[in-house]
Write a structure and sequence with these properties.
Oligomer: single chain
Radius of gyration: 29 Å
Largest sheet: 7 strands, mixed
Shape: globular
Helix content: 25-40%
Strand content: 15-25%
Number of strands: 37
Length: 1006
């Protein structure tokens, strides 16, 4: 099933529809039964991913002899349904006539005349020839205040789909309908312009709109043969269309519009891709006219369905940015000159060969991109190991998720999410630790918010900052920074001591209980209170609640992993889940949320210093034998250098050459000043990217790469879900996909890398990688997906550990506890704790998103969040410039005073317009002792208050200043209560328990 999860189906029963028996499930919407039977029935407001809304009445049918709505009627055994009786047809047509009285039918010149307009298509279903009720303008102006889309009240049919999507799928709760207004309309924050509301520009409302009331601005005047007409001509064309309709009827007009719609297919290209931002793995169709991106249309993606965030829906202008690199660059002294591809690739091959011959293979290193495809990441590590002969290869998971991987491998054997987003939705309790999912993984967070709002899930948040999920949570606890390990161990100890653990699960499926319990013997609730600041009584109540839950999922991210003890805390999370039996069942498990679109895949593909693809150790005899047969070389057994070690080795003179693909390391690695010294020490540095980045300033050769829209391949999401992406447009002239660049250099160095298509690379991956054994492009066609491990026959594994854990005896291991407290707590000199992370609008350092005008308009630059109490103490106001200083560097930022942070905590987003403002000028080189992941969150600073005062760093148009208007959904009863509402045909409708029917029916699985 695609889209948000629905509750389980009821008992299977039989109903009769138009004289034929149909299988159905008790409680599901009757309209789903009719649709499965492929019986044509009008339905304007109903959307299978939204559930019954009951505003349009066009799905009226006879149910046991009484006319009612098919969407709002829940199935019961023995129902007799007739869809085409005289009364039902009259009600359907009358309902549609009421709809188009709110909508100006000018389909031929409409930007939305694309074959998927529900209002247009329903006209054909019902065969209506004349509009009885004339269209009357509502008297409201179009709202053009959002940078990405507009609302036209005169085209709005008040179906409420947008409201339902906003309230109960996205759960931003911005949109409502003013049912009590004399002329109802959709409202943002109760009546604000869109651009001044709490709207996060996620695009849900536009995606589900059944007409052209909500439209992407990128579509306006661009999509059709006639839609670009000058406004006076366009208005005249509408008048002509309406005049013909009055005399000739609607059918001729609709015929012309369908011809015009079909003509659009000749130049509008619709291509499936996978989002290039976070690790959720949203997929959708991209509509283009040559290089112009008309729109992003979600609907069929396994992870997202109709959902997107602002970046996935609107954040693609970076692809056509005017500062894309379009020719290779070669350094000459302090300047760069343009070069041909042959000259640049020849130089790269020659210098790598020379350095290898002079200093040995370990004088070279390679870093794969988490933005590139699986196939490209695989080739990076293959190039390092086969062509050069070194294990010096890594990827950016070193900066975020390596500790989570290590903690899970220690305890359950596989370092990835143990289930899927669908499992998270079905948990009775979701716990997030150090994860701002609503901004870092927004579509995944919508599923958590929805499950909580509909009463299916309890949400508990542990974090030092009050982000959106913290604000919405049932329980929000603020431990001291870096102390999550302590409360996790104390809660685990308490649960076992009180006999609240899942004894049968532990005895049957888990090893190491005694040794583990001995390791946490000192972790009492009292000690946890002393160390974390969370009262012992609060932790006890939480522990009892957790132990009583049917299913618990724990989500965590950089607030856990970017600490000195990130690996140990990740193991402690897994230990707690094991003790409570929360593995191997739907609605349970461990979910380290991957930050980049393909950071999971980059690690899966072996872009790591000690493992090849599928987490096979380089020293494992079977792995060595397999690769020797395929590559003709013997893998070296010793561990290579990781990202952080490469920089130290360069400064020490051991590393001479580095080839970096698609990462802005100079802004994202810790201790940026130290990093730049490492770059300067290299003899030869290759940077492969879309732009001349800050990192590229240190390069000897810069190679212009292609983004995801310009190539084919696969990404693997945080769910371990492998998905194909297709080429939306040709690579920009002068650029090449990464896989072609690496292949060209390998050939110059004497290796037969003759791949014609990424599918051939995936076939090689499958031959070498047991986890990917059954993966091929045919099985990933279109929107088909696979979650690894994938058996040779194509059977995949969305939920891990149903029967056994990934150890030889099939049992998990409780890993003994070791607490590594932070090393850089605030002191007299550096008295503030620095936290950092992502913003919803931007991705990571902002290299892509600052090139999207609408996003940059909403969030123009970085800033530092100060608590009201700290601001009062230091006499700082929002917009005032301050300087943050750490032992490693300093940055100058504008302050934002907000209750999201408390006390002496300060927060700086990772995105910055200028390299000198990047937060990692402040962070140090310390890190997790197991994985070397930098302890970004273990940083203390002091603050100098400057005299300059500027504008508030968050403009008035930013959604954070808005005021959402939460409600249960469309609240259709308020429409029914209007004195001018009559059920179509004047009949009495069946809608007694209507709102509960709608809410419950969000339920039955497809």
């Amino acid at each position: 099933m695609v889209g948000p999860t629905r509750p389980p189906r009821g008992e299977q029963v039989q109903v009769t529809v138009d004289g034929a028996p149909q299988v159905a499930w008790v409680g599901e919407p009757l309209v789903d039964v009719i649709n499965r039977a492929q019986i044509e029935l009008a339905q304007v407001c109903y959307h299978p991913q939204l559930g019954p809304i009951q505003t349009c009445d066009t799905c009226a049918v006879e149910i046991n002899g009484v006319v009612g709505r098919a969407c709002g009627t829940k199935v019961a055994a023995g129902m007799v349904v007739r869809t085409q009786t005289t009364a039902a047809r009259a009600a359907q047509r009358d309902a549609y006539d009421r709809i188009v009285a709110n909508h100006d039918l000018y389909c031929t010149v409409c930007d939305n005349n694309n074959g998927n307009c529900t209002v247009h298509n329903t006209l054909g279903v019902l065969g209506i020839d004349h509009q009885t009720r004339p269209f009357q303008p509502k008297g409201y102006e179009k709202d053009m205040s959002n940078p990405f889309y507009r609302y036209d009240p005169d085209q709005c049919i008040l179906c409420g789909r947008c409201v339902e999507a906003c309230q109960n799928v996205q759960v931003n709760e911005t949109l409502t309908i003013g049912w009590e207004m004399e002329q109802p309309r959709v409202l943002w924050d109760g009546g604000k312009p869109i651009g001044e509301s709490s709207c996060v520009s996620c695009g849900h409302c536009i995606t589900v709109c059944p007409c052209n009331a909500l439209q992407e601005k990128s579509m306006l005047g661009e999509a059709g043969l006639f839609t670009g007409l000058p406004l006076p001509v366009w208005n005249a064309a509408i008048d002509v269309v309406k005049g013909v309709e009055a005399s000739a009827g609607l059918k001729p007009i609709m015929n012309v519009s369908e011809i015009e719609s079909a003509a659009r297919d000749r130049y509008i290209k619709k291509t499936k891709t996978v989002c290039t931002y976070c690790g959720v793995g949203c997929s959708f169709d991209v509509w283009t006219d040559e290089r112009h991106i008309l729109k992003v249309e979600p609907g069929l993606g396994h992870a997202n369905g109709i959902s997107t965030c602002v970046k996935g829906k609107f954040g693609w202008d970076y692809v056509n940015s005017g500062d894309r690199l379009t020719t290779p660059l070669i350094r000459e002294g302090d300047r760069f000159r343009e070069a041909s591809w042959d000259e640049a690739l020849d130089l790269v091959a020659r210098r790598l060969s020379e350095i290898r011959a002079k200093d040995g293979p370990d004088a070279l290193a390679f870093i794969a991109s988490s933005k590139a495809t699986n196939e490209e990441a695989f080739l990076v590590q293959k190039f390092a190991r086969q062509v050069i002969g070194t294990n010096n290869v890594d990827n950016c998971s070193r900066y975020c998720q390596s500790p989570a991987t290590a903690g899970l491998i220690r305890t359950v054997g596989i370092g990835g999410d143990s289930g899927t987003i669908r499992d998270i939705e079905q948990a009775s309790m979701v716990i997030t630790i150090g994860s701002n999912a609503a901004e870092s993984h927004p579509v995944l967070a919508t599923r958590v918010k929805r499950a909580q709002k509909l009463g299916r899930t309890k949400l508990v948040v542990f974090d030092i900052r009050e982000h959106e999920l913290a604000r919405r949570s049932d329980l929000f606890l603020r431990p001291r920074p870096g102390t999550d390990f302590v409360w996790l161990s104390a809660v685990s100890r308490f649960i076992v001591e009180q006999g609240l653990h899942d004894r049968a699960f532990v005895e049957a499926r888990v090893n190491g209980l005694d040794e583990y319990l001995e390791s946490i013997s000192g972790y009492t609730l009292a000690y946890a209170e002393q160390e974390t600041g969370i009262p012992a009584a609060t932790l006890e109540a939480f522990a009892r609640d957790l132990a009583a839950q049917e299913g618990v999922c724990i989500l965590w991210a950089m607030g856990v992993t970017q600490q000195c003890g990130g690996s140990d805390t990740s193991a402690a999370i897994s230990n707690l889940l094991l003790l409570t039996g929360n593995y191997g069942r739907t609605g349970t498990g461990a979910y380290p949320l991957r930050g980049h679109n393909n950071v999971q895949g980059a690690s899966d593909m072996g872009a790591m210093p000690d493992q090849v693809s599928g987490y096979q150790r380089v020293g494992d005899p079977l792995t060595v034998q397999r690769h020797e047969r395929e590559w003709g070389v013997t893998l070296r057994p010793e561990r290579g250098l990781d990202n952080t070690q490469m920089i130290d080795a360069a400064i020490e003179g051991r590393l001479k050459a580095l080839w970096l693909t698609g990462e802005e390391m100079s802004l994202t690695d810790a201790n940026a000043n130290h990093l730049e010294r490492g770059y300067e020490a290299l003899e030869f540095f290759v940077v492969q990217d879309l732009y001349f980045t800050n990192t590229a300033r240190y390069a000897d050769v810069v190679l212009p790469a292609s983004p995801s829209l310009e190539k084919e391949g696969t990404f693997t999401s945080t769910e371990r879900r492998i998905q194909r992406l297709y080429q939306v447009m040709e690579p920009l002239r002068g650029t090449r996909p990464d896989w072609q660049i690496y292949s060209a250099v390998a050939r110059r160095l004497g290796f037969d890398w003759s791949y014609a298509h990424p599918a051939e690379i995936m076939d090689e991956i499958a031959r070498l990688t047991p986890f990917y054994a059954g993966v091929n492009y045919a099985r990933l066609e279109g929107y088909e997906t696979l979650c690894w491990p994938v058996a040779e026959d194509g059977t995949d594994t969305p939920l891990l550990y149903r029967d056994r854990f990934h150890f030889p005896d099939g049992k998990a291991v409780l890993y003994p506890a070791t607490y590594k407290p932070r090393q850089n707590a605030p002191d007299a000199e550096f008295d503030l704790h620095l936290n950092s992370g992502r913003m919803l609008e931007h991705f990571h350092e902002g290299n892509m998103t600052f090139r999207v005008h609408g996003i940059a308009e909403k969030a123009p630059d970085t800033f530092v969040e100060l608590s009201p109490e700290l601001a009062a103490e230091r006499a700082v106001q929002s917009g005032q410039w301050v300087r943050l200083i750490s032992p490693h560097g300093a940055v100058r930022l504008r302050a934002l005073v907000t209750g999201r942070v408390s006390g002496n905590e300060v927060y700086v987003p990772m995105n910055a317009r200028r390299a000198e403002d990047a937060v990692n000028r402040l962070t140090g080189s310390g890190g997790d002792s197991i994985t070397n992941t930098p302890a970004y969150k273990d940083t203390s600073v002091r603050m100098e208050v400057l005299n300059d005062v500027g504008e508030n760093p968050l403009p008035a148009t930013n959604h954070r200043w808005g005021h959402p208007t939460p409600q249960r959904g469309v609240e259709v009863e308020r429409k029914w209560a209007r004195p001018d509402y009559v059920f179509p045909g004047g009949l009495l409708p069946m809608h007694g328990d209507s709102l509960n029917a709608r809410t419950d029916a969000l339920g039955a699985d497809d």
